[in-house]
Amino acid sequence: MASLVGLVLNEVVARGLKHALKQPRPIDRCADLGTCSSYGSPSSHAQCMFFALAMYAALPLLQHHYPVNTQSPITQDYADAWFAKGSKRVFERVLHAVEMGGLALAAAAVGTSRVYLKYHSLDQVMLGAVLGILSGLIWATLMAAGAPFLGYFASAHPLGKVMSLRNSWGVLGVVAVEREAVHAAAGYKLIKGD
Hints:
Elements: H1 2-21, H2 30-33, H3 44-65, H4 73-83, H5 90-116, H6 122-156, H7 158-162, H8 174-186
Helix pairs in contact: 1-3, 1-6, 3-5, 3-6, 5-6
Transmembrane segments: 94-117, 129-154
Pfam families: PAP2
InterPro entries: PAP2/HPO, PAP2/HPO_sf
């Protein structure tokens, strides 16, 4: 939920900057595209994609510096595995690297397409990318600093209880923890390494 709020705030910043800077879009095709009356800098598409990239890249690192949710031994195992050298649980790191690579390619493709299709100039896309990275890092840091409190508040609130919200900040193995909770509720005994 906090990530979605960050994306919305990022879009508000992009639109505000467009109206403050009032830089026109490239004139080559603006009449054909119907974009001559709108402003082009920064590219909000590039800013959004690079915001997501920076935020997603920063969160595992920030979780190391802020409290890890240790309500479950499995969660602590995941935390130990993620930050241990020579860990057997290389899968999480490899998966995160693959996800990061895919997100980086998608962000680059969006930025490139905005220039190629002449919706923006290169400097408008670059400004959007830089602002997206900066705001993504700032938002991830704010999320990390406030997550334990906000997660507890959301899950303890009556609406949060009705919606069965849980504070999963710092839970590096969310699927394993959920499986453990379901097995415990059903009366199954979870065998370590299962």
